[in-house]
Amino acid sequence: MTRLILILGDQLTEEIAALKRADKDSDVVVMAEVAEETDYVQHHPKKIALIFAAMRKFAARLREAGWDLRYTELDDSGNSGSIVGELLRRAEETGASEVIATEPGEWRLIEALNEAPLHVTQLEDDRFLAAHKTFEEWAKGRKALRMEYFYREMRRATGFLMDGDQPEGGEWNYDAENRKPPPDGVAFSGPMQFTPDAVTEEVLALVEARFGKSFGSLRPFSFATEPGQARRALTHFITHALPSFGDYQDAMLDGNRFLYHAGISAYMNIGLLNPMEVCRAAEAAYREGHAPLNAVEGFIRQIIGWREYVRGIYFHEGPDYPRRNGLNHQRGLPALYWGAPTDMRCLSRAVEQTRDESYAHHIQRLMVTGNFALLAGVNPAEVHDWYLRVYIDAFEWVEAPNTLGMSQFADGGVIASKPYISSGNYINKMSDYCKHCAYDVKAKTGKDACPFNLLYWHFLNRHRERFEGNPRMGNMYRTWDRMDADRRETVLTEAEGFLGRLSKGERV
Ligand code: FAD
Ligand code: DLZ
Ligand code: SF4
Is the peptide bond before 220 cis (omega within 30 degrees of 0)? Predict the structure, then answer.
């Protein structure tokens, strides 16, 4: 009996669960470029191009390996426009009534498959280390679901950087060593770039024609679109950047978009790279003496710790998670997030590079664009929509917990024990943006005052009831309370003035 094997645009590996369960002799693989997936948010053109090019190449590899594969291109005349529509069409064509899928990474699509008038089995996505059951068992009975303890379990389970049952070097986490301010020069030229081949060029032309007006530059396009290239990009990172990854993990530079970051998240998220293979390569670099422990531990923690943990939270918390608004923030997303000119150098640089590269590294996402949205009280649903649209690696299972939980505190503290907020001082310490800025980071009030300085106190003041009792925030409130009353009044009035200008769409 023929079954349909569904492969989505972020499941592009021969190791995907549905394919491992399939029978080459009788099953039919279904892949489809569909409007419902390209339009549920207005993705950055580079993201659509990466997914389509990688999908087409994966389909070609499967065909070559002997699979009966039905592929729908976006412009095909019979394209029904949705994944479920394509399954129904292929079911009619082949006589299949059963579908084997690998669970999608977004509730939206999981629910659509559940409701499809077909017999759909959704297998767990075993590219991840922590099965749903493993995460639930870990979470059960815990008051707080903190990443650090989950991460230790993952270290034990994988054996990465373990010395018997103890962590390599005696510590589980070397984050304290990973906060160096920005270096004077960066020896890494950035992620490896690839020249588009004929398949990718054809996709680029399609994306240009259909999505060319969306926010973001399609060209130059230099992402890897097949596993061999992604592995070369990984080796390039391990060889040239990993040794300094730890030291400068939190740093930002006005003139350098990548510093020592890997730029491989999209490859892992869509199936071109296996996360365990990535961690094995990083550990080997440590064992061979090529990279220090603080760098390798920091890097592996991002993958078996943060990446697995946020996915666990997304599924643990359920489909309403992306709609949460724990701090009741209601402001619309400021136009500067779409490139409207701003005098705030940190924001203009982060947005500019997001437009050009569909990439910003973690601290830019968290402490620049995220921090500003949180301080300004932007509606988290709009912030979530922005992050899901603009980044090449954005799929809800990873984007939503990072945005709503870690960055916007909209989940009420499931992920973060306190909001990630800072004044301009932190950005000044960790970057050189302020040197190029029209505002004065040292000025706390007055027309030149860095807006982060004003908004920081405004945030704390307006959320006093919620955060005053948080032991990790007591110092902030004590500092605020020690300021003289006139000064506090001036800060709040100027912050209100700034927010008013932001609301009116004036240049800030
Ligand atoms: P590196 O800094 O080189 O880190 C190595 C790898 O670790 C990454 O490739 C990534 O797979 C993993 N990693 C690091 N931090 C995280 C994290 N917090 N959560 C999950 N994985 C992590 N990551 C996404 O993959 N997709 C997203 O949509 C996404 N949205 C984010 C939104 C916000 C508001 C924030 C603060 C972070 C978000 N992240 C997201 C996490 C992180 O910023 C990116 O994974 C990272 O910037 C990718 O670049 P890189 O490969 O150069 O990472
Ligand atoms: C992101 C994306 C886009 C833009 N287009 C497609 C597509 O046309 N076909 C497809 O199978 N997948 C696409 N994807 C990836 C899916 O949106 C992704 O599988 C879900 O969001 C679940 O993570
Ligand atoms: Fe950003 Fe303020 Fe520094 Fe300007 S002064 S770059 S707004 S932190």
Answer: yes
Q: What's the 358 CA to ligand 2 centre distance in angstroms?
A: 16
Distance CA 466, CA 474 (A): 12
- Which of 175, 398, 409, 422 maximizes ligand 1 atoms within 8 Å of its Cβ, making it the mutation to test the pocket? 398
Q: Token digits for 457?
A: 């106190």
**Tell me, what's the pLDDT at 185?**
87
What's the DSSP call for residue 431? B
Which residues sit opposite 177 in a β-bridge?
none
Dihedral sign for Cα atoms in the order 176, 182, 184, 190: positive
Question: Which residue numbers in the chain have pLDDT < 70?
Answer: none
The one-letter amino acid code at 211 reads: F
Q: What is the pTM of this model?
A: 0.98
Is residue 5 within 8 Å of residue 18, measured between CB atoms?
A: yes
For residue 11, the CA-to-ligand 2 centroid distance in Å is 9
Task: Render pLDDT for 29-65 as a digit per residue (tens, 0 to 9).
Answer: 999 999 999 999 999 999 999 999 999 999 999 999 9
Nearest to 450 by CA among 498, 502, 393, 392: 498
DSSP string, 75-137: T-TT--SSHHHHHHHHHHHHT--EEEEEPPSSHHHHHHHHHSSSEEEEE--TTSSS-HHHHHH
Cβ proximity of 245 and 261 under 8 Å:
yes
pLDDT at 1: 85
Length of the chain: 508
Q: Rounded to the nearest 5°, which phi and psi values hold at 68? A: -80, 110
> How far does residue 395's CA lie from ligand 2's centre (Å)?
9
Q: What is the pLDDT of residue 273?
A: 98
Q: Yes or no: say if 502 and 342 are a contact pair by the CB < 8 Å rule.
A: no
Q: Taking the CB of residue 78, how many other CB atoms lie within 10 A of it?
A: 9
Any ligand 3 atom below 6 A from CB of 252: no
Helix H or strand E segment including 310:
helix 308-317
